[in-house]
Amino acid sequence: MCAGRIRGSRGVAALVALAIVSVLSVAAGADRDIPVQFAGRVQWIAGEVLIVATDDDESISVDLAHVPQDEYQRLRNNDRVVVTGSISSEQSRVVATSIETVEP
After folding, report:
1. Same domain assignment for residues 27 and 38
2. Domains in the chain: how many in total?
3. Which pLDDT belongs to residue 25?
4. Range of the domain at 64
5. Quick one: pLDDT band at residue 96, thresholds 50, 70, 90?
6. Three-state DSSP string of the chain
7. pLDDT tens readout for residues 51-74
8. Are residues 38 and 26 in the same domain?
9. Is the pLDDT of residue 83 over 50?
């Protein structure tokens, strides 16, 4: 019976260790976000996602969750903008902190 308790304790300890490692790896990933700023034209906007075409004809997906709504609610297709934010740790999109409209 005592051996069963030891195995059970080791299992719990292993789960706790795994949970700690998972949390630390997520926190470390957040520290690796790369700051960026770029200009382009609005291709489309839906909800909290903005697609911007750069002057090099690259399309960049922008997460607007951290941008005040008044900075992007009036954006229309083809508006020129400057996006400030960071490349997410997954590198699938830019997480914006600011969207500025640029006059032509």
Report:
1. no
2. 2
3. 45
4. 34-101
5. very high
6. CHHHHHHHHHHHHHHHHHHHHHHHHHHHHHHCCEEEEEEEEEEEEECCEEEEEECCCCEEEEECCCCCHHHCCCCCCCCEEEEEEEECCCCCCEEEEEEEECCC
7. 999 999 899 999 999 999 999 999
8. no
9. yes
Specify whether 45 is located in the same domain as 15.
Answer: no
d(CA 78, CA 7) in angstroms, rounded, equals 63
Question: How far does CA 50 lie from the centroid of its chain?
Answer: 13
Q: Residue type at 87? A: I
- Asked whether 81 and 51 are in contact (CB, 8 A), the reply is no
What's residue 57's pLDDT?
A: 87
Asked if 27 and 41 sit in the same domain, the reply is: no
Statement to judge: residues 15 and 60 lie in one domain: no
Q: Is 50 exposed, middle or buried (0-12, 13-18, 19+ CB in 10 A)?
A: buried
Q: d(Cα 44, Cα 51) in Å, to the nearest integer?
A: 5
Do 44 and 24 reside in the same domain of the chain?
Answer: no
